Amino acid sequence: MSTSIGPRVNAARAGLHRGLIEFRASMGNAQEVIFGYVLFPALFLGMAFFLDDGDSEGLGIIFTGLVMLMALLGVMTTAQVLATEREDGTLLRSRAVPHGMVGYAVGKTVHILLMSVFSLSLLLVPALLFIDGVAFQGWLGALTLLWVCLLGLTTLSLIGAVLGSLISNPRMGVGLAMLPLMGLVGISGIFTPMDFLPGWIQGIALVFPVYWIGEGVRAALFPVEVLAAGGYGVPELSLVAGVLALWTVIGFLVAQAVLRRMARRTSGSRVQAAREEAMKRAY
């Protein structure tokens, strides 16, 4: 058993190192940082600053921005990166290395998590300093937000990996996939309490992790009296943790199976054909 675990551990370490290198490379790309990770937080900060009416409006905008940003970064960024790297041959090169898919998965997870934490910090830190009503609910609130963000982003990234493996055209596919994602965010109690929605729609929302991420973030930032006034109940953090952990385990197992299948189907000729098709689309 040790002979099989050893190479996988080494591959995971190599993936960790690769993820850190990709993170530094992304931070050195001004265009990627501004349009991929800075613009969205800046928009929500501007909305919270100018629309805050002193009655938790700014807090609500920051809450919505945090959950939407996690959904976009976790699902859409992962899906786009995976679909693009399958097309440009990166995935094929990873498959050629022993346990390369393990290193690839770890590297992508580390890279996307670090970039996501960076982007979320750009939204949260200024909000805590300058937006009235935005504050942690004690040190437990800060700890809650930390584990909800990390567990939630991991869960969403795994969903994004499965989605990215199914997308054949990175440009068109990712854009189309954003529509159901935004629809899911819309029915998950992020904008208004779910009591306004039909029961069957509420049931759909409860199945997916976006609702539970929202519950965790709400518990970390909203006072109990504000939740009651807004028609929300007190979030059950043990249930939030359990659902997100279950989604993470299921997502990891499904993502591993899908990635292995995708890697087997990826060949040099398919990559070359994808490149030629991408060049046609560019012109």
TrEMBL record:
State the species of origin: Nocardiopsis exhalans
The membrane spanning regions, by residue number, are 33-51, 58-83, 110-131, 143-167, 173-192, 237-259
UniProt domain ABC-2 type transporter transmembrane: residue ranges: 39-222
Pfam family membership, one: ABC2_membrane
Q: Which UniProt keywords apply?
A: Antibiotic resistance, Membrane, Transmembrane, Transmembrane helix
Q: How does it sit in the membrane?
A: Multi-pass membrane protein
Report the superkingdom from the record. Answer: Bacteria
By what name is this protein known?
A: ABC transporter permease
Q: What InterPro entries does the annotation carry?
A: ABC2_TM (IPR013525), ABC_2_transport (IPR000412), Nod_factor_ABC_transporter (IPR051784)
Lineage of the source organism? Bacteria, Bacillati, Actinomycetota, Actinomycetes, Streptosporangiales
Question: Where does it localize?
Answer: Membrane
